[in-house]
Write a structure and sequence with these properties.
The protein is an alpha/beta fold. It has 15 helices and 27 strands. The strands form seven sheets. The protein has a six-stranded mixed β-sheet with strand order 3-2-1-4-11-12, sandwiched between helices. Strands 13, 14, 15, 18, 21 and 22 form a six-stranded mixed β-sheet that branches.
Length: 560
C-alpha cells in the first residue's frame, strides 16, 4: 500500500493506494503554523485500521521551505564570496550581509589569484561579532576547484567553531555564480529548521508503527528519502506544483501534451507536459527574489483560487489576490469564485442558498442580479486564467526542451488537453479549454491529484560530469566530487561510462539504487585542447539523469 500526502495552501490531502487503486482519501484544513499536525491528521484518516506493516511507502509534499522563505522566517545568513575578476557583485540580488574577498579560480579549476586570507579573517570576525550563526562561502568556479571555499570555511570556523558554514560547491556545482551563491545561502538559511521538521516527521510516523520508507517530493517531480532530503532542503520548495504535475501524469493517458491547471483555494499553479514529459526550467527555480540552481518544473503560481476574495469595483469585480477564508457557501465571510460557480451550477459543492446570498450581496454593490454577478465573477476568473496561460507560453517558449519539441513536431505547440486538478478546477477549466481550442479534462480524482502525484512519483537524480584529461581530473557538478583521470586516451565513451557509474553510486548512497537503471544520457560533448598544432587533451562534458516518472506499482488512471 502506498500513501501520498500533499500540504496545500488551503487543505492537506492524503490518499491510500492499493494495487493501483485509490481506496481511501482525506482532506483536513491546512494550518501553516502546525504543518506536522496537519500531515499526521491526514495520515491518520487514510490509515485508519490498516495494519501498519502493509504500508510500503509514504511520500509527502510540504510547503515548509516555501513558507519559511515567503514569511521571512529563515535563519540569518552572512555570505563571503570570491567573485574573481570581471564580475560586479553589486548587481547580485542576494540580500543579507555580503563580504567580498580577493582571489580567483579559473574555469578549468586553476588558481590564478591566491585567496586573500586576511580579508577572509576580517570578514569572519565581523560576522562573528554581529552574532551570525550561519555563513555561506562561495568562490566563482569553486565547483571546479573547491580549495578556496574549503580554506574560507576553515578560517570562519577558527574564528567561531559554533558557526555552521555551507560551501558553494556542496550546494550546487552548476555554472552561473550568482545562482550558486543564492542557492548556498538558501540552503544555509533553511537547513536547521528543515532538519527538525524531518526528525519530527520520522518520529511521528514511527509512533504509528509504520516502518515503511518515507520520501519527500522535490520541485522536479522526483522523490528523496526523508533522511537524505535534510542535505537538500531547498529542493523541496515548489513541491506542490510538482505534485499536481505528477498527478496529471498519473491520471491521464501517457504521451500526451497538456497544460496543467491546478486550482486550489488560494492559488492556481500552471505547468506544461510535452509528449508525456514535464517541462523543466533550464536555469533553475526563482525563489522569492533569489535566482537559484534548484531543479524544478517550469511552473508559475497565480494568485487566484476558488476561495479568492471577490471585490466590487464600479460595475465590475476584481479577484484576489488575498483569501479571507472559506467560500461563503461553506460558511466563509466573503463572496468567492466558488460561490459564483455554485450559483451557475458549474459545481455542486457548498450550500446553494448561501452562494446565492453571496452573489446577491455582490450584485447590489455592482448594480445587477445575483446571476449576473456570478457570471461576471466566472468571466473574470476565466479571463485571468487564460491571460496567465498565454503569458506562460511566452516563458515556456524560451526553454530549450520546448524549442527542441517544436523542431521535432515541426509546428507550434497546440496542447491536446487542459487538465484541471484541485478543488476549483471543475467549474473553470472546461471554459478555459474551450477558449484555447483544447480538450478540457477533469480526472475522476482531480480533487486529490496532488496527493496521488506525490504517492506515485519515482526518485530523480541528475549528474553533470566534466573531465579534463590534460589536467588529469574530473568533477561532478552537483556535489563537487573530484577525482583523478590517469588515462590520456580517456574519450567520450569512457566519460559516459564513468558518468553512469557515478550516478549509480550516487543513487545507492541516497537509498534509491533500484531506480538507477532508469538513468539516461541527456548530453555528451567533447572539446579538444590544442597547443602548438597538437591535441594535448580533451574536456568532456556528460549529463546524466534519472528523469521524473511514475513508479511501476502505479497502474491506475491511464497514467501507465
Amino acid at each position: 500500500m502506498l500513501i501520498g500526502i500533499d500540504v496545500g495552501g488551503t487543505t492537506t490531502d492524503a490518499v491510500l493506494i492499493d494495487e493501483g487503486r485509490i481506496i481511501k482519501k482525506s482532506k483536513v484544513p491546512t494550518d501553516h503554523d502546525h504543518l506536522l499536525e496537519c500531515l499526521m491528521d491526514a495520515l491518520d484518516e487514510v490509515v485508519g485500521e490498516i495494519p501498519p506493516e502493509k504500508i510500503e511507502r509514504v511520500v509527502l509534499s510540504t510547503t515548509l521551505i516555501t513558507n519559511l522563505i515567503a514569511e521571512g522566517k529563515t535563519d540569518p545568513v552572512a555570505l563571503i564570496m570570491e567573485p574573481g575578476p570581471g564580475m560586479n557583485p553589486d548587481g547580485y540580488a542576494l540580500g543579507g550581509e555580503v563580504h567580498i574577498v580577493r582571489g580567483a579560480i579559473d574555469y578549468r579549476g586553476r588558481e590564478i589569484q591566491p585567496l586573500d586570507e586576511d580579508q577572509v579573517k576580517e570578514a569572519a570576525a565581523k560576522i562573528a561579532d554581529r552574532g551570525y550563526k550561519k555563513v555561506a562561502v562561495a568562490s566563482k568556479f569553486g565547483q571546479r576547484n573547491p580549495s578556496h571555499e574549503e580554506r574560507m570555511r576553515e578560517i570562519v570556523l577558527r574564528t567561531n567553531p559554533e558557526i555552521a558554514v555551507e560551501m558553494g560547491h556542496r550546494a550546487s556545482g552548476r555554472l552561473n555564480f550568482p545562482r550558486r551563491a543564492a542557492t548556498t545561502m538558501l540552503k544555509a538559511a533553511t537547513q536547521e529548521r528543515y532538519r527538525r521538521f524531518a526528525e519530527e516527521i520520522a518520529k511521528a510516523v514511527s509512533r504509528r508503527k509504520i516502518e515503511a520508507p518515507i520520501y519527500v517530493l522535490k520541485a522536479d517531480g522526483g522523490t528523496l528519502p526523508l533522511a537524505t532530503s535534510v542535505d537538500h532542503p531547498v529542493e523541496t520548495i515548489f513541491s506542490g506544483p510538482a505534485a499536481s504535475t505528477m498527478g496529471v501524469l498519473a491520471l491521464t493517458p501517457p504521451g500526451q501534451t497538456s497544460v496543467v491547471v491546478d486550482i486550489g483555494g488560494t492559488t492556481t499553479d500552471l505547468a506544461l507536459i510535452l509528449d508525456g514529459v514535464p517541462l523543466i526550467s533550464s536555469e533553475g527555480a526563482r525563489v522569492d527574489s533569489y535566482l537559484t540552481h534548484i531543479r524544478a518544473f517550469a511552473v508559475k503560481s497565480v494568485a487566484l483560487g476558488g476561495d479568492s476574495r471577490v471585490r466590487a469595483e464600479g460595475q465590475t469585480v476584481t479577484l484576489g489576490p488575498d483569501r479571507a477564508g472559506p467560500a461563503f457557501c461553506f460558511g466563509g465571510p466573503q463572496p468567492t469564485p466558488t460561490d459564483a460557480m455554485r450559483v451557475m451550477n458549474l459545481i455542486s459543492i457548498g450550500d446553494r442558498v448561501l452562494a446565492e446570498e453571496a452573489m446577491e450581496k455582490l450584485g447590489r454593490e455592482i448594480g445587477c442580479s445575483a446571476g449576473e454577478a456570478a457570471q461576471k465573477v466566472v468571466d473574470a476568473a476565466v479571463e485571468k486564467l487564460l491571460s496567465e496561460i498565454n503569458g506562460m507560453f511566452l516563458a515556456w517558449e524560451l526553454e530549450p526542451a520546448y524549442r527542441v519539441w517544436e523542431i521535432l513536431q515541426k509546428e507550434k505547440i497546440r496542447p491536446q488537453n487542459v487538465v484541471g486538478v484541485g478543488g476549483g478546477s471543475l467549474g473553470l477549466v472546461p471554459l478555459v479549454a474551450e477558449l484555447l481550442g483544447a480538450e478540457g479534462i477533469i480526472p475522476e480524482e482531480a480533487t486529490v491529484a496532488n496527493a496521488i502525484g506525490a504517492a506515485v512519483a519515482r526518485p530523480t537524480l541528475t549528474l553533470t560530469f566534466r573531465a579534463d584529461t590534460e589536467r588529469g581530473f574530473y568533477t561532478v557538478a552537483e556535489d563537487g566530487t573530484t577525482g583523478e583521470i590517469r588515462d590520456k586516451k580517456f574519450g567520450q565513451k569512457e566519460a559516459e561510462e564513468m558518468a553512469r557509474k557515478l550516478i549509480v553510486e550516487g543513487a545507492e548512497r541516497m537509498g534509491i539504487g533500484e531506480y538507477a537503471s532508469q538513468a539516461e544520457v541527456t548530453s555528451s560533448e567533447v572539446f579538444n585542447m590544442v597547443r602548438g598544432w597538437a591535441t594535448t587533451g580533451r574536456i568532456l562534458d556528460v549529463g546524466m539523469q534519472i528523469p521524473a516518472g511514475l513508479i511501476p506499482e502505479w497502474t491506475g488512471g491511464g497514467g501507465r
